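OP here, attaching both records as promised.
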Amino acid sequence: MGFEKNPLLNNIGKEQEKKNFSIYDLESGAKVKVNTKEFYPEGGEEKLDESKAVILLPGWEAEPNDKTTMLLGKEFANCSTQKTYAINSEIDKDSIKDKQNIDIFYEESMATSKYIKSKGIKEIKIVGYSIGGDRAMSLAYILQNDQDIIVD
């Protein structure tokens, strides 16, 4: 069954999702663009605990508005009954001063953690597939010692 015929995608693209991006200037001097899309469980936003969320980090070359990411975002929102953020980050390679000694995953994960904090999220579940799995481990590493955020 192709995505076009998948009934789970029927409600995607409507009022239950929002898309945006932010740019973060990090201490290393790197600039990172964080692309996001929010997914809500069926029933809408009004009953949600905004301090809890699922963070979905898509795979290689995938964006928050790709069909696979949208399908997964919607399903994670419905199954967890929590807002789900699909997040993809991209470092501006021209902003890197020391290109030989920079950990791109770490810098992108730092920007993602700043985004999570800016949303007031205090408890998260992190999921990722393909290279998003690597990003999930990097993000969990950064957040493990953060007293303000619980990683489930």
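Record two, same layout:
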Amino acid sequence: MTKAPTDASTTQERSSPMSDMKVAADPGTHQIVITRSFDAPRDQVFKALTDPDAVRRWWGRRTTETVVDELEARPGGRWRFVQRDGDGNENGFHGVYHEASAPERIVHTFEWEGMPGHVLLETITLEEEDGRTRMTDSSIFQSVADRDGMLSS
């Protein structure tokens, strides 16, 4: 993945040579928008985002194990995942679902337990075309500084 430019006068965008994933963040805004396509129908992509066994297999870095402590994909339901690296270090993440409308939309909060109080609102929409699914993932941060911190991580 290429590093996002730091010129505040242009949209920051990153893409990956391994996929069509794009990360866009307009300077001075509280938002990051990630778009990506999957070679799968949207009901399968929705399941990958909401089924604990599926999430365990893909969420997080390849060098970590993901433990799904809790996942209730329904309005008011909670989620909590823990990433564990080879040295036993753990990072926890959690949030609350505001919407889970199969198979097209998920809205939930996201908070890294290493920086409590920095909560973002994430909206994921899934659109299917010709058996492929286009995911748009929009995250709204409490501040531009929080958004910029996520971009740099």
